[in-house]
Design goal:
Blueprint lengths: L2 E5 L8 E7 L6 E5 L5 E3 L2 H15 L6 H10 L19 H23 L5 H81 L12 E2 L6 E11 L2 H7 L10 H16 L7 E9 L1
Antiparallel strand pairs: 1-2, 2-3, 3-4, 5-6, 6-7
């Protein structure tokens, strides 16, 4: 049991250097926690209580003499990220404490990495992993606090959405129905104007381009016919063959979207793709 160990004086406390060594006169065992004065186990009962209550845990964390010496001199373990809590405002809001802790720890990490260069020792590998663990703990705590503080606002936002979203959605749906009705008139009116323009041209009369435009509406923005180019897949199997893809893969939504984007890029570049085309779509807008 004699040797050097890393132990905690209290649950979740920091690991401190611990030495267990025999009395020179053989009268017992000395135990020294960190920089505290050593105490002696000078009876069989004390030794038994110590072994059962503490040493069983110590035994899982033996350290080298070099690591023990480093802790005694610096208060830091060579294979662990340093403690930075003493550099952080203890009475600050949690977001300030976490930010300062993260910044201090990041500075320590960057300085350490710059000093060691490549990681080539077990102690350095352990220390890198310890830094990773400490950074992850900070991120986890920050995420939990973020979710906690955000929750009331999310719930309030859902309540607002519940009040207004149905009206918004119903208004948009009604606008589409009205646009379809207006489109029926605009299509009819444009056909009439085209016929009249053809008759005027036959009669040798001039026709102005603006006279061929049909509009509807007496308030706000007027509605007119707009023609846009719409990418359309007309034959999925033909498109799959063109790109040398088993058309069964196109049953997968994300794959279909990806292949469609590739086909669209080809068509926009002037390359014909079997099974896909750009179609002119006229609608009221």
């Amino acid at each position: 049991m004699f040797g050097r160990y890393a132990s905690r004086l209290k649950r979740n406390g920091p690991l401190i250097a611990t030495a267990i060594y025999p009395a020179k006169d053989g009268s017992g065992i000395w135990v020294k926690f960190g920089h505290n004065d050593p105490f002696k186990l000078d009876t069989a009962d004390k030794e038994e209580d110590f072994c059962e209550g503490k040493f069983a845990w110590f035994a899982r964390n033996p350290v080298s003499n070099a690591s023990y010496k480093t802790w005694m001199e610096t208060g830091e373990w060579p294979n662990q990220a340093p403690q930075v809590s003493d550099r952080v405002q203890s009475n600050a809001p949690p977001e300030v404490m976490l930010r300062e802790t993260l910044d201090e720890l990041t500075r320590e990490f960057d300085a350490w990495i710059a000093s060691v260069g490549e990681i080539r020792t077990k102690d350095d590998g352990d220390k890198a992993a310890d830094f990773k663990g400490r950074f992850s703990e900070i991120a986890k705590e920050a995420e939990e606090l973020r979710e906690e503080q955000k929750r009331p606002h999310v719930e309030a936002g859902r309540k607002v959405d519940g009040t207004w979203k149905p009206i918004v959605d119903d208004g948009k749906a009604a606008a589409k129905r009205a646009a379809a009705a207006a489109q029926s008139w605009l299509t009819f009116d444009r056909a009439r104007k085209l016929r009249e323009a053809a008759e005027a041209v036959e009669a040798g009369q001039a026709v102005k381009t603006e006279d061929l435009t049909s509009r509807a509406g007496t308030r706000g923005r007027q509605v007119s016919l707009r023609t846009t180019q719409q990418f359309t897949i007309t034959d999925r199997a033909a498109m799959a063959r063109y790109f040398n893809i088993d058309d069964r893969f196109l049953e997968n939504g994300p794959v279909m979207v990806a292949v469609g984007k590739i086909a669209l890029a080809h068509i926009e570049a002037g390359i014909a793709v079997p099974g896909a085309e750009m179609r002119a779509v006229t609608s009221a807008a």
